[in-house]
Amino acid sequence: MSGYLITIGLETHVQLKTRTKMFCGCSLAFGTESNTNVCPVCLGYPGALPVMNREAVKLTVMSGLMLGCEINRVSTFDRKNYFYPDMSKDYQISQQAKPLCLGGGVTIQMPEGQKRIRINHIHLEEDAAKINHSARFSGVDFNRCGTPLMEIVSEPGLSSPEEAMAYLQSLKQILVYAGVSDCNLEEGNMRSDVNISVRPEGQEALGTKVEIKNMNTFKGIYAALEYEIARQLGAVSHGGVIVQETRRWEAELGETQPMRTKENAHDYRYFPEPDLVPIVLSAEQVEAWRALLPELPSMRRVRMMAEYGIPEYDAGVLADAKENADFFEAAARLCGQGQGKTVSNWFMTEIMRLLSETGKTITQCALTPEALAELVALVNGRAINGPTAKELLPELFNNGGMPGVLVHARGLGQVSDAGTLEAFVEQAIRENPKSVEDYKAGKKAAAGFLVGQVMKLSHGKAAPQQVGKLVTEKLAERV
Cα(238)–Cα(149) distance, rounded to whole angstroms? Predict the structure, then answer.
């Protein structure tokens, strides 16, 4: 609706990829029986003391570095006090006064160009337990309680559901690239609280904020934003007043519904966590962690275009998943200069088809970059033809091995002997007189049919280019 500005901010909670919980040694294995991965610390027993997970600190700092944040070399934990069944000790250990990471941002690509979405801060905390509701009762599963959770708080700089999606997808890609989280939405690894407000154009102050809690699917976030923006615009355009409140998304109804009103910011009565010492990081430690960072996906796309001569679309598809880009680059380097597009074609057609059919990732299949590079070399050297290579690829994908060994063992080498090929061509012409007559009548497609017959006679081993040339020459003699 013209005349109004939309403002969106996101608070994204990301479960970090650690083996154990934030303040105890309990396992984080997903899918285990309820309330089995627990101990006195994560259950909040009196007198149980937390011990900080160093790996969680490292992964949070690495995330901040990937996102261009300033790292707070002295960081502290605080107690966020609230009473709710999902936090048995009645407070959450979080960071409020001195979070680990400050500033930074995510660059998104929109149809109108690039836009930088600024981040306010990233803090580290423990996750709450999971409340499971049934028809007659609710239960609390404390397996999740204490999971290392990184909260990435954006500035209110998003102005549409499309921008919110671009931000979340870019953020997810960067974090997965860095190896700090799986960002598996189905397992709850990535969840967002969404803040939306509307205000008249020209008004500096933001409108009244409405928060939608704990959204765990991109599709749901997009739909909730669309609905809530329309609801708020409809209200203010008819003289209504937006109430500051927390709402939930009801996917089955396709609408947001009130949970609780918030006349003022909720008072969590933060105070410094007395059982944990501050995190003190040296410059050397921060730089050591910086050295572990991968290349940003956006930078990798640009570099691969320049280094391997592949188009922007190919680079975007390949760089979308780090393991795919790693595989492509390894194979392209083995193939040598000028073969980037060839390797890209193989990966984006045949290999991605096999990945889709099997539901595997490239790291889960048996195909290696060395095998793909050798397959490309065999085709380029005319030791085998394209159809034979495509027949070999599924076996290499499923069972591994090297294509040269398979070609030798099965006698699949390409037939390029002129005399042998000429005999095949003569046989095809002799057995298909109608095609010869069609060619004489000007139907050039008849030559292609005869080439196919030669390939069939040679069991796919004939060199296609030589066959095409021979067929054309033999037909010309008969015109």
Answer: 41
Return the axis-axis angle of helices 445-457 and 433-440, rounded to nearest 10°. Answer: 150
Identity of the residue numbered 269: R
pTM of the full structure: 0.83
- Distance between alpha carbon 457 and the CA centroid of its chain, in Å? 46
| Fold of the domain built from segment(s) 418-478 | Arc Repressor Mutant, subunit A (1.10.10)
CA-based nearest residue to 73, from 47, 99, 93, 42: 99
In tens, the pLDDT along 142-189 reads 999 999 999 999 999 999 999 999 999 999 999 999 999 999 888 889
Strands 255-261 and 4-15: unpaired
Q: Which of 35, 65, 83 is nearest to 150 (CA)?
A: 65
Tokens 């088809």 -> residue: 353
Cα–Cα distance between 92 and 110 in angstroms, integer? 38
What is the separation, in whole angstroms, between the first and last Cα of the chain?
71
- 424, containing H or E segment: helix 418-431
100-120, pLDDT tens digit by residue?
999 999 999 999 999 999 999
192/215 Cα distance (integer angstroms):
5
How distant, in Å, are the alpha carbons of 150, 172, 457 from that of 180? 10, 10, 55
Dihedral in degrees, nearest 10, Cα atoms 154, 159, 165, 169: -40
Is-contact 174 25, C-beta < 8 A?
no
Cα-flanking dihedrals φ and ψ of residue 79, to 5°? -100, 125
Show the DSSP H helices in 1-93 as ranges: 54-66
- DSSP label at residue 84: -
Low-confidence ranges of the chain (pLDDT < 50): none
**For tokens 């901040």, what's the residue?**
64
The answer to whether the CB of 147 falls within 8 A of the CB of 21 is yes
Q: What is the CA radius of gyration of the chain?
A: 30
Residue 439: strand pairing partners: none
Does residue 306 sit in helix, strand or coil?
helix
Q: How far apart are CA 81 and CA 75, in angstroms?
A: 19
Looking from the CA of 127 toward its CB, the CA atoms found within 13 Å total 26
Amino acid, res. 401:
G
Angle between helices 218-237 and 161-178 (to 10 degrees): 150
Q: Tell how far CA 286 is from the center of its chain.
A: 26
Which residues of the chain form CATH 1.10.10.410? 418-478
Do residues 467 and 454 make contact, with C-beta atoms less than 8 angstroms apart?
Answer: yes
From the centroid of its chain, how far is CA 257?
Answer: 31
